[in-house]
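Page header: ASSEMBLY MODEL / two components / 484 residues total.
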Amino acid sequence: MTKSVAGELTGLELPIERGCPFAPPTAYERLREQAPISKVRLTSGGEAWCVSGHEEGRAVLADPRFSSDKRKDGFPLFTLDAATLQQLRSQPPLMLGMDGAEHSAARRPVIGEFTVKRLAALRPRIQGIVDHFIDDLLATDQRPVDLVQALSLPVPSLVICELLGVPYTDHDFFQSRTTMMVSRTSLEDRRRAITELRAYIDDLLTHKESEPGDDLLGRQIARQRQEGALDHAGQVSLAFLLLTAGHETTANMISLGVVGLLTHPEQLALIKAEPDKTPMAVEELLRYFTIADGVTTRLATEDANIGGVSIKAGEGVIVSTLSANWDPAAFKDPAELDVERGARHHLAFGFGPHQCLGQNLARMELQIVFDTLFRRIPTLRLAAPAEDLPFKNDAVIYGVHELPVTW
Amino acid sequence: MIRIKADTDLCVGSGQCVLTAPAVFDQDDDGIVALLTDHPDDQSAAHARQAITLCPSRALSIGPGHGAEEPRAGRRH
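Prediction written out in full:
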């Protein structure tokens, strides 16, 4: 195969929709083989570098010469309308959009909440939440059941309640609004849910400022008081960020993980026989589906040579974590779902200083859900052919809208 | 025998090292990497090497002066 000259436009436009529900767009394979760093067009206009190789992707994401600040001129954006730009430039950036010392100052106060030890202490609560929804599933006579509504969405919603210290009496409100926020309802419904959740979090925080509890927000308040400055608006944004980053993503991975395991019964049998293999299976499912592709975008702030390609200051870079996770140089036979392969080096949570803050919480939720679901409902099966499921082909976060199951 | 180094300024608290080599790495209450030992035994060293490649902020490395001439290497038990 002839290699194209790096920098030559490939004719590819990003973002691309997934065609086959169980594989990345074939265009990525062509890019990886021809030039793992190559120029592409963006559907929003303009061009950027698309990084499709695993090693090259890691190099860019760990390199401080690449900025995450979406407000900078030339930053590769998939939506360029005036309203989006105005919103982007008028609001203070979340930690996702910060660089260097500023990013570190925003992330550091929160990372203590997500240590492996602290999360281990949360495990019994998460197990209780998962068991509760599976109790409900087993109690119903209805068949088939939509697993998205019955398990995938409510579990992470209640885990976030637990994390933020949302009182029990408000769980139903919180869960219904978070579900509405990510469902196929009208734009108006989704906007209303977001507004109501923001107002709720604002009130919750005000309440916690007078009575800080032993939870993430309570500890953040105590820490800020100690440092002498309470940042109410900043804490509302942080709570909302944890909600938006941790809810739909985890829900989609629960659904897709169930689909992945049910369509690969020999792989499912491995973890049923040896639950010790579930953590590795979770890594492989994260790799295989890589639900957040095209989220890791950067802007070069200095000239940089990555993998022999010269990227100039001011040029945009899009790292395709999906393509990287199907790079045969890093994962042999990437199209095989192999729960025993040891896929820990996947980029599904990103790489570099912005790597997912809640990754170990997500891991734990997925491990508990898969173990518990298939142990308690061993005859669980899809109630529709896998290829006919309504996959979220054009969504920022890949998933399924509905997942009819029976047993 | 290898010597592990951890840069607490670079650490972003992803916890990958603790998951990968729990005999070598821990996190303090603020989530920052803490070394349980900087001279891991052979089995832990293999895990520590994997942790070094997985660390997203490149905060971990194998330090200089490893090998038999390292004075502390003799303290292995």
